[in-house]
Amino acid sequence: MPQPIPRPDGLLSLKALRQMQTEHSVLGALQVFSDGLGPIFELRLPGFKAVMLVGPEAARFVLVSQKDDFRWRSEGDPVTLLLRHGVLVEDGESHDRLRRFMNPALHKQMLKTYVDEMVQRTDEVLASWGQNSQQDMLVEMRKVALLILMGGLYRVDYSPDMQRLWASVLKTIEYISPGIWMFWPGVPRPWYTRRLKELDDYLFQIIRLRRQEKTQGSDLLSLLVKQSDMDDDLIRDQLMTMLIAGHDTSTALLSWALYLLGKHPHVLEQAREEIDRVGGKDAPSMEMVSQLHYLDHVVDEALRMYPPIHLGSRKAAVDLEFHGYTIPSGTRVMYSIYLTHRLEQYWDRPHEFIPERFDQFKPTPYTYLPFGGGARNCIGAAFAQVEVKIVLARILQRYSLELLPNPVHAHMGATLEPRPGVMMRVVKRS
After folding, report:
1. Distance (Å, rounded) from C-alpha 154 to C-alpha 202?
2. What does the H/E/C string look like for 224-242?
3. What is the pLDDT of residues 362-379, one digit of tens each?
4. What is the separation, in whole angstroms, between the first and last Cα of the chain?
5. Are β-strands 332-336 and 48-54 bridged in parallel, bridged antiparallel, or unpaired?
6. What local confidence, expressed as pLDDT, does residue 108 receive?
7. Over the range 88-119, which residues count as b (16 or more CB within 10 Å of their CB) and which as e?
8. Tell me, what's the pLDDT at 215?
9. What is the mean pLDDT of the chain?
10. Quick one: which of 32, 144, 181, 409 has the most CB atoms within 10 Å?
11. What is the pLDDT averaged over residues 255-283?
12. Given this model, what pLDDT does residue 214 score?
């Protein structure tokens, strides 16, 4: 007889509830469950059941060794309803085919062609800060991320439409974030319809305009339009996937990095000194950011502590065995990147922000997964890593930053965000 998968008892659940109240985040409860139950445990709530996996063995199990026994697509989930046939929610050959179409625009060799756009769009947002002001970096970095993604990957100037579509973007992210749909599948949510349609209309418009252009480039939108067997609906699905998943992860990463720099002024000062020494006042370039090794470590550590994609979710396609436990076919299986990044047996002082740990340290395989792993690792990982360094370097070149004393907690939305925001005083450097 297979042994039942561990699940929290009343005492452990009470401890988890208290931790969740202390941290103002469900992550506190998951940490308690992981500490008390080990690398596999079951979560049960009214209308919701899932198996949570933690640790490098779990990551290898889901991402590599048994990857063909899991499905990304979950019919009826809001992510699938929104992205339809986007590369993120496709399986098998359908996924592989879409990824082949999209890879050239996101290849490392293409990154240098996006750098000027990244700098220009960052400068566009910084220009609104003035000499001395208070800014919510969660909001400001979303502006930067949207402008860079649209301008770089789609070759579209999003500036004239950003304010008009701001609420639609936020509502779309809210639509796929954890909520009542997890406990009540198929629950009507008509209040999202208008905002989702606004974003759809915009994407179909830029597809139509690109088809009318006589000359097309090597950006992602142009590559997709050139595919003779891709209709507007399928192109829309890829654009929506990259727009939402791409900009929201960059928003979270940049916001957390700035929050952590503000919380640790000595790290902020060391990062600024490196940028000044390497690049001076010159606009950041690929050559420059390749020499910003300490900033690399800052970004790596921000990704370790607060990975924007903090868990992966799959459906078991067959009965599976893990650590002696049976996971029945059809079970929702989640693996926690956040908890894996904080396992004490693999990370020294895992709850502390220590960028220097990455100076000589090489993480054990599958203990560090900010962009996933295996054949389906994040398609935009290389783009995001360059983007975040360009943006942070430009901000630190131009502004002194001071974190204001407002409480921040990790919010489990579509990504892991610092809520209610990251308020900073920004003062223009002379």
Report:
1. 13
2. HHHCCCCCHHHHHHHHHHH
3. 999 999 999 999 889 999
4. 72
5. parallel
6. 87
7. bbbbeeebeebbebbeebbeeebbeebbebbb
8. 78
9. 95
10. 144
11. 97
12. 79
Q: For 141-155, write each residue's pLDDT tens digit.
A: 999 999 999 999 999
The answer to whether the 1-71+310-369 and 105-307+371-428 domains have the same CATH topology is no
- Distance in angstroms (rounded) separating the CA atoms of residues 303 and 91: 27
Would the CA dihedral through 400, 299, 385, 275 be positive or negative? Answer: positive
Residues forming beta bridges with residue 411, ordered by sequence position = 417
CATH 1.10.630.10 fits 105-307+371-428, yes or no: yes
User: How are beta strands 332-336 and 311-316 bridged, if at all?
Assistant: antiparallel
Q: What is the pLDDT of residue 1?
A: 61
Single-letter code of the amino acid located at 124 = E
CB crowding 192-219: b at 16 or more within 10 Å, else e: beebbebbbebbeebbeebeeeeeeeeb
Q: 1-71+310-369 adopts what CATH topology?
A: 3.30.43
Q: Are 418 and 411 in contact (CB under 8 A)?
A: yes
- Tokens representing 266 are 């000595």
Q: Cα–Cα distance between 347 and 342 in angstroms, integer?
A: 7
Mean pLDDT confidence for 7-15:
94
Q: In the 8-state DSSP scheme, what is residue 414?
A: S
**180, two tokens:** 């009542």
pLDDT in tens, 142-191: 999 999 999 999 999 999 999 999 999 999 999 999 887 777 777 888 88
Sequential DSSP letters for 16-31: HHHHHHHHTSHHHHHH
Q: Could you say which DSSP state residue 306 is in? A: S
Residue 204 makes CB contacts below 8 A (sequence gap 6+) with 232, 236
Cβ atoms of residues 404 and 384 within 8 Å: no
Which residues have CB under 8 Å from 225's CB, separation 6+?
207, 210, 211, 216, 235
| 3 state DSSP class of 54 | strand
